[in-house]
User: Fold this.
Amino acid sequence: MRVDTAISEVQDAELDLAKQLHRVRERHTAEPDVHHLGNTLAHRCEEHVRRLAPFAERYGAPVREPHVGSPRLLDALRRKSGELLGHSELAGPLLLRDLCDLSLAAHEVEIAWVILGQVAQAVRDRELLQVVTTCHEDTRMCEKWLRTRIKQVAPQVLVAG
Amino acid sequence: MADRIADIWGARTPHGADSPWPVRVDQYLAEGVPEGEVQWVPSACVLCSNGCGMDIAVHSGQIVGVRGRASDRVSHGRLGPKGLFGWQANNSPDRLTEPLVRRDGELRPASWDEAMGLVVERSRQVLDEHGPLAMGFYNSGQLFLEDYYTLSLLVRAGIGTPHLDGNTRLCTATADFALKETFGTDGDPGSLRDFDLCDTIFAVGHNIAETQTVLWARILDRLHGPDRPRLVVVDPRRTAVAREADVHLPIRNGTNLALLNGIQHELIANDRVDRAFVDAHTVGFDQLAAIVADYPPERVAEICGVPAEDIRAAARILGSADRLVSTCLQGVYQSHQATASACQVNNINLLRGMIGEPGRTVFQMNGQPTAQNTRETGANGDMTALRNWQNPDHVADLARIWNVDPLQIPTWAPPTHVMQIFRHAETGSIRFLWIVGTNPAVSLPELHRIRSILAQENLFVVVSDAFLNETGHLADVVLPAAVWGEKTGTFTNHDRTVHLSVKAVDPPGQARPDMDIFLDYATRMELKDKDGAPLIPWRTPEECFEAFKRVTAGRPCDYSGLSYEKLRGSPGIQWPCNENAPEGTERLYADHQFNTDTDYCEDYGHDLATGAAHERNDHAALRTNGRAILKSTHYLPPHEAPSEEFPLLYTTGRTVYHWHTRTKSRRAPQLNAAAPEMWVELAAGDAERLGVREGDLVRVESARGAIEARAHVSGVREGVVFAPFHYGYWDLPDGGATDGDPTENGATGDGPGGNGRRRAANELTVTEWDPVSHQPLFKVAAVRVEKVADGGGVPSPAPTTTTARPVSGDAPGTSGGDGVRETVEEAREETR
Ligand code: SF4
Assistant:
């Protein structure tokens, strides 16, 4: 049984997405929705990791801790450059690229949840399945939000930019 | 004669649910006007969303007064202070009477030919070099349906850009979205008459007494009548509405959703749910129940800062109502988690099974008088006639009526909201922006940013307006527009009542109706349909209205049974009005069949937390079958919370005497005298801590800017600072040149405070918006307050008559609206 691997996969993918969301939100302070929702969504990822912790223990997967702490130097630098970037014509193309990267990262998380959901069913772990169902839905919303935003920004950047 | 500045709502005419609201005709004529020689022209008031029917008094080619129309279904003859006195702005000597063009840095008079020539030349240049996505249009909530529909067709099919929005984004975008999310399409289900018939009123973030005074007069007549309805009020301020309440919940700003989830928790926990209705006519109950289970009153009390017992008491009243009317406005729409919260108000009525029947409805109210029409015509973020931009059949249908290629209509993404339009302008991808009848340099959040965008070299700004306002000062071309009373057209209020407003006088100088300006532009731009005929075939407002009837036929806002003839001087007729309902429709969803069919709905809905747009398959999976959708989500804390640096919560709002940025109300002497200057409100406890007394000059500062104004110690919630949003800079004694004139110092993007004394409330607000409706957040920001100078005991200029009523009572009472005649009529047959 490799339930532990499936759990670790999800946790790693979530943490990676959270990290990317934090980075992107700091880089795009002039896009308030990206900045604020980025934060909400990153916290959701971290919350997902926490919710999996008891199952990680149950199935002997290594402990994963979401990074918590005050904004680091790099974040502050990103924020500063984000402010400068705010007025630049490069802001649009960079935003589009970042959203596309996020979308790929979110998709990895989504697939990891699909796999864990299958595993949870196969081992008849009802509790785990419940957590998977809600968290998976959150991830799908995150992906969908990214798609909504990409649809809106792409033509502006690529046609009018 | 009554003083209707001092007595805002006029004489009471109490009644019970079993008798109609009595008629009281309010009239105000300028002094010395011979009443017998006056000619009366049928119209309705355009100073708020109530849209009270009125007649305009004309003498010697001038507007000289107004009177309410006795037969009007909205007002039963009444008018409020703005309606009675606001018309005087039309006659103001500083109207724009000729176009202005910027030359050598200054706005100078020009001919129409010259000005339009320049607008067209620049449009062509931008279109050639950058395409339609470099063009933006931002309009108003105060034009007529005919102006909007012309603009909508011009921009969507002619220019072909998605960047068209209205300032209704700031006032009713959330109403629009909440209605779409729950019921499938826009359009308030109820009738204003439901207030006459209900036994319980639930007002959430809706200061009815100041936003729609005639509606409040209507409600007061019930509250002071024989079978007084119970009233539950949610508002951080002790408004005149709150003072009448059975339960007042002065919650912390930004926590509406937690409270509303809590109330639903109680309704479900105490079995106050109409299960038969919910099972037959809604989807989403299980998910809603699972979410609100997390909001017991004790937890909610902690989040919202009100006693758990009061939350229970409110839920008990709502849970025992038989005829419940709920209503919400900006306290919900301009606050945190706006659409999510507005949807919960819908949910409460649905859980109680109270919709579509007399005295049972929910109002997602409008703010501006003609906001409903921007939505219906598609001059904001909607597609014409409540069509769904994601539904290719709807787009094809529209393209067929407009005789254009469907691909010409931009539908690859939702229409762009104004904050995003300004963002595109900021990064340089929008290079042409036409602003129609609105004043973003005072009304949008974070003003120093807005001013610096408008002043950008690479942005060509056209402004059409009746007056040269703060935004006009930053324009490259200014076009003089005619206003209400000077043009004919229709508009629709928040209970779907359509009125015709007939031209009473000529516009001043060379000012023209907005529709004529758009038609001129379309002609000069040679906009054509796919057969090479002019894209916009109409020339008169009536022809435009006829075209709009065709484009709405079969849609929920069906105008096909209306005509100018039918509307002239009528009591007002509610859409849908068609062959089946020739006299209009008082209530939607009387059969509890909602507009949620996937093929018919206006929107496939959103995830309320993130704003992620659902697509066709997601919606189809709900299998709505005409059932309403109970949308739900969790409360999240606001993004900007009070901190050590900025310990107080900041919120903005209106005062009864002013409208928007005072473009009109500042020019009506009685209204201006009643509220002549900016003030900020502090709670008594906060004032004491800060060492501030009534009338002292204080500085209020957020991370984005600072303002100075005189402090008013009022009944606002402790920890909250309130500022009216009306006051800008154009009327300062020195013309604003040293005192925050946008062209002088704002344009350089100066930091907080600038080099002059600033007073506009939006210097402090945050650039953030609701994820679903994209309505900006004006009700949640963190600030600090410090005393700047002693007021010497002179009270602040805040009016004493309403919410701003002082806590200690020695200020002189606000007055000065003499000369209004109120005539109460004997009971008459109820008009619809
Ligand atoms: S309530 Fe509104 S529409 Fe009626 S008179 Fe007052 S401002 Fe005008």
